[in-house]
Design goal:
The complex is a heterodimer of chains A (221) and B (424). Chain A has 221 residues and is of the alpha/beta class. Chain A is built from seven helices and ten strands. Chain B is of the alpha+beta class and 424 residues long. Chain B has three domains: 147 residues, 5' to 3' exonuclease, C-terminal subdomain (DNA polymerase, domain 1), CATH 1.10.150; 97 residues, DNA polymerase, Y-family, little finger domain (Dna Ligase, domain 1, 2-Layer Sandwich), CATH 3.30.1490; 80 residues, no CATH class. Chain B is elongated and about 110 Å long. The termini of chain B are far apart. The relative contact order of chain B is 0.07. Classes of the chains: A alpha/beta (221), B alpha+beta (424). Chains A and B meet through helix 3, helix 4, strand 5, helix 5 and strand 8 of A and helix 11, strand 10, strand 11, strand 12 and strand 13 of B.
Chain lengths: 221, 424
């Protein structure tokens, strides 16, 4: 028996926990994003980042809409109390299946609430919105906290999504998407802002793939 | 010995004062087992006097009859006013003058008896049983026994509505919540056991504390679904008392549980997972502790065009489980089916802005965290509403792209300019 085979035989049971099966992927609600990512992995942390007005929130709301449409119970931990229920319902989010935690400009509370929700379990999706949290504050969140969140959702059917202005979770995130606004379509009449064209780059897993999607101002049935 | 009361007032509660074996014979008649009352009050006459005295005190107006069997007592209470005491063995003689209608015979039987000229108890009691059985069947025989006061049956007792409450007088005032938790745990344990033995659960806990300064402190916990989870109840009570502590040391604790049937739910193989309700309630109580009572819940849009009109369902202590709260989910009316829509990130409260207007259009905007030249814009989008109320609103909205790279919605309302939020 060769050396590696002997080692494998001796240590396989010890290293068994490290062998991870491919997680189930769920749709984001935006077909272009699903095409480059395959969907969002369950039991993993997905991080969406980009500057203000880059389409991060539109993407998050689409993800919430798709999850609530699957009859899943979702939680939104709103770090800066900036969630707009009107936009969300227009995007198709079923508000009666959404738990909204308003943390009032306190990132620490947001992180604590997300931790309690993920530890409690049972949610289809837990979203942590740190989109307006100043990068300096977001950077102060320790990697241990992100690791704790990742471990809490591991081996559960929960999709954990975090949005921020810059990547914070680093190695703890299984999927990282960077959003960037490409251009805006205006209208002189109604509606005022017609559409926003967003370019999304998959930063993790390593191979970079990009996709474009368009966020419209009004809902189209 | 049985007693029957026929009249008006809260007869049921009145009867329970004398016996635990009470039958609600009709809406205006109750019958109770008076066996053993002679040891308390003495002879039958004294029992009747005691019952009448108590009836006078409680405002019950009823005829009272005491007899060796319940049906004789019922007939006497219905047929005679005041107090009737039927001597054992002479029931037939006592009831003889009563009308047969008191026995509520079926219309056909009543018609037959009318035709025969039998109108009183004594007439029916005198008929031979064999002849009645041949002509009137079992109902006729039963009526004959009633008329003779010879029906032997057991009472169909009412169950005293169970009250699940326990209380404890403390030897010394308890100031801290931790020692109080031991007391609560003991009370919860007893209540949960009693509920479980009756196959019940609870969805509401009421905690009443008497304080050293003679004040009272009351808290109520409502659960989304009935449960018997003592540990969860204790933790919820602890969290609630930590958020709303009593103003003085506690000297007396009373805990009451509302008994309900336990939740029976069959989950399906293809039903998406949902948080376990009691566990979620506990999690939300923990989150409310640091974010605030009204900051957790499910958003619900209000039926108005006023911008930003919504409310949080489940805030303030009663948190329904999202999607399970009302039993039937709200009908989803709108929403895009595919793709994304532009979403607004709201600034709460709206940020007061200084806007430079050039030829009727904003050209420069400065607010807290927002500053730049207006590169592109669209608007104004004029809206107003509630002008028929005391709180009208009107505004001119503009969507703008600033030189800081972001897209904003600004509006001009009577007090001035505001930045409502950023598009993202």
């Amino acid at each position: 028996m060769s050396g590696p085979a002997v080692l494998q035989k001796q240590f396989e049971s010890v290293l068994q926990w490290q062998i991870r099966t491919n997680p189930e992927l769920v749709r984001t609600g935006v077909s272009e994003i699903d095409r480059i990512t395959g969907g969002l992995p369950r039991g993993c942390l997905t991080e969406i980042f980009g500057p203000a007005s880059s389409g991060r929130t539109s993407l998050l709301i689409s993800i919430l809409a798709a999850a609530t449409k699957r009859q899943e119970i979702c939680a939104l931990v709103d770090g800066e109390d900036c969630f707009d229920p009107v936009s969300a319902e227009a995007a198709g989010v079923r508000l009666d299946r959404l738990l909204w935690i308003r943390c009032g400009h306190n990132a620490e509370h947001a992180l604590k609430a997300a931790d309690l929700l993920t530890q409690g379990g049972g949610f289809g999706l837990v979203a942590l919105d740190l989109g307006d949290t100043p990068p300096r504050t977001a950077r102060r969140i320790s990697l241990t906290s992100w690791f704790r969140l990742r471990r809490a959702v591991e081996n559960t059917p929960t999709v954990l999504v975090a949005i921020a202005q810059q990547p914070n979770a680093k190695t703890c995130a299984s999927l990282m998407l960077e959003c960037k606004r490409e251009r805006v379509t205006w209208s002189g009449g109604t509606p005022l802002l017609r559409a926003m064209h967003v370019r999304v780059a998959r930063r993790k897993p390593i191979r970079e793939v990009t996709a474009n999607f368009q966020a419209d101002a009004d809902a189209v049935e | 010995m049985f007693a029957s009361l026929h009249g008006s007032g809260n007869l049921r509660a009145f009867a329970f004062e004398f016996s635990p074996m009470v039958e609600q014979t009709a809406s205006d008649t109750v019958t109770f087992d008076a066996e053993g009352l002679e040891r308390l009050f003495g002879p039958v006459q004294d029992i009747a006097t005691a019952v009448l005295r108590r009836a006078g005190e409680t405002g019950v107006k009823a005829n009272l009859a005491l007899a060796a069997n319940p049906d004789a007592a019922i007939c006497a209470a219905r047929g005679f006013t005041g107090v009737s005491i039927l001597p054992q063995g002479d029931e037939a003689k006592f009831l003889a003058s009563l009308s047969l209608q008191l026995m509520n015979p079926s219309p056909e039987l009543q018609e037959t008896l009318e035709r025969w000229g039998i109108r009183r108890f004594q007439d029916l009691a005198a008929l031979p049983p064999l002849g009645i059985a041949e002509r009137l069947g079992p109902e006729g025989l039963h009526l004959r026994l009633l008329a003779r006061g010879e029906v032997e049956r057991k009472l169909v007792p009412l169950e005293d509505p169970p009250r699940f409450a326990d209380e404890l007088e403390l030897d010394y005032p308890v100031e801290l919540l931790e020692p109080l938790a031991f007391v609560l745990s003991r009370l919860l344990g007893g209540l949960a056991t009693r509920l479980a033995t009756r196959g019940l659960a609870t969805d509401e806990l009421r905690l009443r504390l008497k304080l050293e300064n003679r004040a009272r402190h009351e808290r109520m916990l409502r659960l989304p679904v009935p449960s018997l989870d003592q540990r969860a109840f204790l933790k919820l009570l602890q969290l609630d008392l930590a958020a709303h502590p009593p103003s003085a040391p506690v000297v007396h604790v009373q805990l009451e549980a509302n008994p309900v049937k336990p939740r029976a739910a069959q989950t399906g193989l293809y039903v998406p997972v949902a948080p376990e309700p009691v566990k979620l309630e506990l999690t939300l109580a923990r989150i409310r502790r640091f974010v605030g009572e009204d900051k957790v819940g499910s958003p619900e849009l209000l039926d108005t065009h006023r911008p930003g009109a919504f409310r949080i369902c489940g805030a303030g202590g009663v948190a329904p489980v999202p999607g399970l709260a009302a039993g039937v989910a709200r009908k989803h009316t709108g929403g895009k089916t595919t793709g994304a829509i532009i979403t607004l990130r709201i600034f709460r409260p709206p940020r007061v802005a200084r806007v430079v207007v050039d030829s009727g259009r904003p050209s420069f905007v400065a607010a807290e965290g927002v500053r730049g030249r207006v590169l592109q814009m669209a608007g104004p989008w004029r809206t107003s509403g509630d002008w028929w109320t005391a709180d009208p609103w009107e505004r001119d909205e503009w969507d703008i792209a600033l030189s800081d790279g972001a897209l904003y919605r600004i509006y001009c309302a009577p007090p001035g300019w505001f930045v409502e939020g950023s598009y993202d």
